[in-house]
């Protein structure tokens, strides 16, 4: 089942149960997908948006909500923080499951060893390899921090 059909099913389910938060969030997602479809038609692709593009779009939406929630928290607007958190929960249900911290660190360590990376100059090579092998399963903001720590610690030991 495609992500698009999962979103549509969840939207119809939310309409039946009259879950206002889900309805509005899913409506935003579906509108963004439809916008992407229209943009694709104007570029001669003609194909509907693929799951990979929808995932990228959902990740972008999730990032926007995280940033908004932080700003609302600083402003002391808890009701808006709660609203953003609810939207993040809904969006997250359609994203592939992310690896845990331990598993991510283990894979990063293995990749550093395999590529024989020794300095921060090798960062791009490592990140490229990880993005190629695990495009959806890793949180690359965490990966970035882990790889930097690994490269800095190996540089200090040398």
Protein architecture, described:
With 158 residues, this protein is mostly helical. It has two domains: 3-92, Orthogonal Bundle (Hypothetical Protein Yqey, Chain: A, domain1); 101-157, Arc Repressor Mutant, subunit A (Orthogonal Bundle), CATH 1.10.10.410. The protein is 76% helix and 0% strand. The protein contains seven helices and no strands. The protein has helices spanning 3-17, 20-42, 51-74, 78-92, 101-114, 123-133, 140-157.
Quick synopsis:
This protein has 158 residues and is mostly helical. Helix content is 76%, strand content 0%.
List the topology elements:
Blueprint: H1 3-17, H2 20-42, H3 51-74, H4 78-92, H5 101-114, H6 123-133, H7 140-157
Helix pairs in contact: 1-2, 2-4, 3-4, 5-7, 6-7
Topology-level CATH name of the largest domain: Hypothetical Protein Yqey, Chain: A, domain1
Architecture of the largest domain, according to CATH? Orthogonal Bundle
Number-wise, the strands total 0
Oligomerization:
single chain
Any key phrases for this structure?
globular; Arc Repressor Mutant, subunit A; 2 domains; 158 residues; Hypothetical Protein Yqey, Chain: A, domain1; mainly alpha; 7 helices
């Amino acid at each position: 089942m495609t992500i698009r059909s999962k979103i549509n099913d969840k939207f119809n389910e939310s309409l039946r149960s009259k879950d206002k938060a889900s309805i509005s969030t899913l409506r935003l997602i579906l509108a963004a997908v439809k916008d992407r479809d229209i943009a694709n038609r104007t570029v001669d692709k003609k194909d509907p948006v693929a799951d990979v593009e929808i995932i990228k779009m959902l990740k972008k939406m999730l990032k926007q909500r995280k940033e908004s929630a932080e700003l609302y928290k600083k402003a002391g607007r808890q009701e808006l923080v709660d609203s953003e958190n609810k939207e993040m929960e809904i969006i997250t249900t359609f994203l592939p499951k992310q690896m845990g911290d331990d598993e991510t660190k283990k894979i990063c360590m293995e990749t550093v060893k395999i590529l024989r990376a020794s300095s921060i100059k090798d960062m791009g090579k490592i990140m490229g390899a990880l993005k190629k092998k695990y495009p959806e399963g890793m949180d690359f903001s965490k990966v970035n921090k882990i790889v930097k720590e690994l490269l800095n610690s190996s540089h200090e030991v040398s």
